[in-house]
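lol ok so funny story. i was supposed to be doing the assay writeup but got distracted and ended up predicting the structure for this chain instead. priorities right. anyway since i did it might as well share w the group, maybe its usefull for someone
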Amino acid sequence: MSHFDVIIVGSGAAGLSAAITLARTHKVLVLAKGDLAGGSTAWAQGGIAAVLDAGDTFENHIDDTMVAGAGLNRRETVEFVVENAPAAIQRLEDMGVPFNKEAETLHLTREGGHSHRRIVHVDDATGWAVQEALQNTAAAHPNITLQPHMVAIDLISDRHADTPTGAKNVWGVYALNNNTGRVETLTSRATIMASGGAGRTYLFSTAPRGATGDGIAMAWRAGARVSNMEMMQFHPTCLYNLEVKNFLITEAVRGEGGHLKLPPGVQDGGERFMDRFDPERMELAPRDIVARANDHEIKRLGLDYVHLDISHHKPEFVKHHFPNIYDKLIGLGIDMTKEPIPVVPAQHYTCGGILIDLHGRTDLPGLYAAGEASESGLHGANRLASNSLLECFVFGDAAARDIAEHWEDMPEPPAIRPWDESRVTDSDEEVVIKQTWTEIRRFMWNYVGIVRTTKRLERAQHRIDLLRGEVEEYYGHFRVTQDLIELRNLIEVADLIVKSALARKESRGLHYITDYPERLSEAVDTVLEP
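and the output, tada:
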């Protein structure tokens, strides 16, 4: 058993931001399921939204966020994040993030849904630069312990105490050490869940392999509420390639003038089509609109993909703005300076999650959440481009500050029972995990995707109910592995997504259901109680 002041599950932007702020006064343990840079942060291409241009205002950024979120956002949260954005950018600059500049001024690009240029970036690989700077800063701090290859299993709560009292506190996590194969008991006064989203619940996703909704599932099992889980964002432009399954073509390609077109050989082949879906904003419409448009054209015409074309710009412009995408595509035989890119929609971001307040606090004392695992009220029914990394920095810092401010009020954990492995054995039926994982991802894509119906959702719920029993029976009899832990969490978050989708009797933002095509006059969160 090991004890730290604070345990953070997740080593991306939210987790490391919190750790760096807390380390001034507290001993912090940061857990990563795989490599430290294996989460979604390092994959982010576009950038970070912040009001830095003289012609822009906080109110403009707030309005753009509210419009994209279809009014489901909590305005106080949007104001809080937008107003703290410039300070977050400054902290990153101070850590050495080499944002692109023109002369001495930060270069700002524009993305879908934004009324102004306000996206700071590092070429088209912002996430990697941010991850590297945060990771280097954290690694250099003596109060931060970075521990990769630790798979969190469950939150430690009162029911795990030697003498339960009925308290709702969270006091750390049980985690599988993949280096030793043993489950460790890790305790703390406060725990921050910064474990990322649940993209791998779907067959096609831009999310990394580890995005299996672990933190959301753990918090739900411990008794925290979750909110708006039906709001799954599908990115409009994922590369269509039989070898590369989840390479994202950043929003900024459309922001810099890329056109969506129908492929040759079909009616209106080679022509743009967004004028039929959003004639004013065209390719710069919010992601939910563009993703549905792409999905509609693909299904209407029986296509495998549509085209994203920026070849009308000079080659030097394209290579300068998108060097990493250009190099990746060249390696696949696609020259984006001369020809269009084949793209399809894919699951991209989990807008719902663990319900938190402006301090990152959940319903459970001692448990905080930040980043994609949380539902802060920032994104509402659809995340505005480049607000995701921003949310991580602002809420990671906010959670850390709240813990420091209320440290003396947080009780020390009681005596906790170690993980019991005496009743389980190694499995010789690993194929069960692979089969069930594949089945979940496939029916979630087919039944709970971009366009939904009540009948499809009910079919998905029926499959979840059947598979849950199988997963629980397997989990109860065999020694835990990373694959089994993730499968247990996948079935949990799939259930939360479907239950939330069935509860919303309207179409709003990312949730489009043909049985209820109209938006209701009042925006209400879908909050699930444990």
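The CA atoms of residues 344 and 412 lie 50 Å apart. The mean pLDDT is 94.
back to the writeup now i swear
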